[in-house]
Write a structure and sequence with these properties.
The chain is mainly α. About 30% of the residues lie in helices and about 0% in strands. The longest helix has 24 residues. The radius of gyration is 30 Å and the shape is rod-shaped. The chain starts with about 20 loop residues before the first helix and ends in a 41-residue tail after the last helix.
């Protein structure tokens, strides 16, 4: 019986399309699912600290002390005195 052996120089009759391995597609799908779940849980939990609001939350609540810098306990100046390091 005559078998046709292909030499490395033979061209394929139809070029193959690149297909990602199934494990890669499954991993990417898992990443998307985990991201969506974590985003939903974070949205349901709300802000992580009292008084923490996004920029479009409207006017600040009344009764707050200090300036409007949004950085609680920091006035924006550098403390260079003794023991003032971080």
């Amino acid at each position: 019986m005559a078998e046709h052996q292909r030499s490395p120089g033979d061209a394929d009759p139809a070029p193959r399309r690149w297909v990602p391995p199934p494990a890669l597609a499954g991993f990417l799908l898992l990443l998307v699912v985990v991201f969506c779940l974590s985003y939903g849980v974070g949205s349901a939990a709300g802000p992580v600290a009292p008084g923490m609001y996004s920029g479009d939350a409207g006017p600040a609540p009344a009764g707050g002390a200090g300036g409007g810098s949004g950085r609680h306990g920091h006035d924006g100046t550098a403390d260079t005195g003794p023991g003032g390091g971080r």
